[in-house]
Amino acid sequence: MKEIILNKLIEKLGDSQIEFSEFRNDLSILLKKEHLLDAALLLRNDEELKFDMCKDVTAIDWEKRKNRFTIIYHVYSFKNKFELRLKVNIDEADLAIASLSGIWKSAEWYERETFDMYGIRFISHPDLRRVYMPEEFEYYPLRKDFPLLGIPGSLPLPK
Amino acid sequence: MKKEINISNDEKLIKSLMSQAADVSIDDALENEMIINMGPQHPATHGVLRVVLRLDGETVISSVPELGYLHRGYEKMAENMSFIEFIPHTDRLDYTATMCNNVAYVLAVEKLIGIESPDRAQFIRMIAAELSRIAAHMIAIGTFAMDVGAVTMVMWTFREREKIQEIFDRIAGARFTTSYTRIGGVASDIDDFALKMIKEFLDQLTAGLNEMARLLNSNRIFLERLEGIGILSKEDAIAYGVTGPSLRASGVEYDIRRAKPYLFYNEMDFSIPTYNDGDCLARYHLRADEVKESVKILYQCLQKIPAGEIIANEPKKVLAHKTEVYSKMEELIHDFMIINKGINPPEGDIFFSAENPKGELGFYIVSNGTGYPWKMKIRSPSFCNLQVLPKLIKGHMISDVVAIIGSLDPVMGEADK
After folding, report:
1. Which residues span the domain enclosing B135?
2. pLDDT 10s per residue in chain B (417 long)?
3. What is the helix (H) or strand (E) element at residue B124, kind and residue range?
């Protein structure tokens, strides 16, 4: 399965090499930001692959690395019973990435959650609002520079 | 410095509601459109779910679910505590199926560390998880029936659930917040008396289930309120990321216990019930059938459970029992190191998911080699299943909204994390 996915991606994206890693039998593929939409379309629409469910979208804050955030997508193929992890590194200077909610409908809320927690903007997302935190909240709680105990005064209290 | 408080959130919500296309119309309903606010304090929203509805008469034109009233920031807390310390917090995710959460979490951590628990521990986990699944489905069916008017049902299902709580009290020492599993095994062995309790419980459960089925399956009010309501097609269910009973009621045979077996589920003989209707009634029937499958699994577990250790022999990863810590030097050293430095899994990231009563509970854990996880993401099934709610209730009556929420069976402790 691994070879098929990698070969198809190489063919489609025109890259000679695709970075991937395996840990405890989980296959992760590292994509370039500009390739994400093409790769996602291929993974969902290809008859042989058919990754038709997006199980999860989230991000990792690396704090001190050059590319501070990594966006993670977990997609699943019912046909092959195979789970794949897509990773895209993005830099703090440009916190925006194409939304996959047009490809996998379920990504809509997951991307909202990622926006809520990390402040990453998903371009052309239909309804990019906060999910958990109040709309007027100004911080992004899952970033590493947000303190565990919260920021005093960041949530309005009743007068 | 005083800051102007922005209370425009609701206005934004209403604006977004009004902007949605209103292609549903009833000939001569009440002329005016109405926005009503259902929840967060509403008995039928199963916790603190808030749904803002735009109505034409009594028909729902569009809706926006609002979450976050129970957001406790477990993902943030997980980054600031060791892997062992997080186990009690998993109880508070889906609080109707605490054992299932315990099992899923420790299996995820074990996958990250790369250890396996002994066979007996795995069987005990399976027994605990299946009992918990029955308890959760009992609550789901009972409250669902109560939402649509069959109030007797909730008494009957809670009666069965109470017996499961007694069993949990015996094996874990707690009825509700069990925190029973440990990394590498389980906290305490299951004794013969507890096994006998489980056997007795299972023996009388079938009769109880038949009784419940007789009460509901021919109840005309119950059937007519559910049949053909909230139909979720197979394609939509997959596209919206719905998992668990709601997915299987739409005709997709997907159960992680079969698709990607963990514990000893591959050695168990059970079937995955599926229905093709995808309506509320199918989701009810599916849960009832799943309880029967769980009973089958439990009988097999009771038969096959082997003797042996209940915790893995991995001194650097698994906490030793307290009696050993107090009497042996080696164990004391390891105990000190694990408590103070953590279990230090190798660098890497894993995603592990288990079949929970509500759907697929997944843990995505990133480790940087220290005792605390660098990141932990909880893929909670209730959150993902709720996403499809606006689609299901569109065009239905306001009283059907209650039935549809009940049939999706969200638990807000999990949806809000």
Report:
1. 74-390
2. 444 444 456 777 777 777 766 655 555 545 567 888 887 887 777 788 888 888 887 888 888 888 888 888 899 999 998 888 899 999 888 888 899 999 999 999 999 998 889 999 999 999 999 999 999 999 999 988 888 888 888 888 998 999 999 999 999 888 888 889 988 888 888 888 999 999 999 999 988 888 888 888 888 888 888 888 888 898 889 999 899 899 999 988 888 988 888 888 888 888 999 998 888 889 999 999 999 999 999 999 999 889 888 888 888 888 888 888 888 888 888 888 888 888 888 888 999 999 999 989 999 999 988 889 999 999 999 998 888 999 888 888 888 888 898 888 888 888 888
3. helix B119-147
Domain of residue B274, CATH code: 1.10.645.10
Within 88-127 of A, beta carbons closer than 8 Å to B belong to 104-106, 108-110, 113, 117, 127
**Model ipTM?**
0.91
First to last CA, chain B: 33
In the 8-state DSSP scheme, what is residue B324?
A: H
Distance, in Å, from the CA atom of B312 to the CA atom of B321, rounded to the nearest integer, reads 11
Entry field: residues in chain B: 417
| Domain contains B12 | no
A86 vs B contacts (CB less than 8 Å): none
In a domain, B402, yes or no: no
Homologous superfamily assigned to A2-108: NADH:ubiquinone oxidoreductase Nqo5 subunit (3.30.460.80)
Closest by alpha carbon to B79, among A88, A118, A156, A120? A118
In chain A, where the domains are located: 2-108
Kindly state whether residue B414 falls inside one of the protein's structural domains: no
Q: Enumerate the residues of chain A whose CB falls inside 8 A of the CB of residue B75.
A: 117, 142
pTM: 0.89
Nearest CA in chain A to B242: A106
- The domain total for chain B is 1
Cβ-count burial B69-99 (b if 16+ within 10 Å, e if not): bbbebbbbebbebbbbebbebbbbbbbbbbb
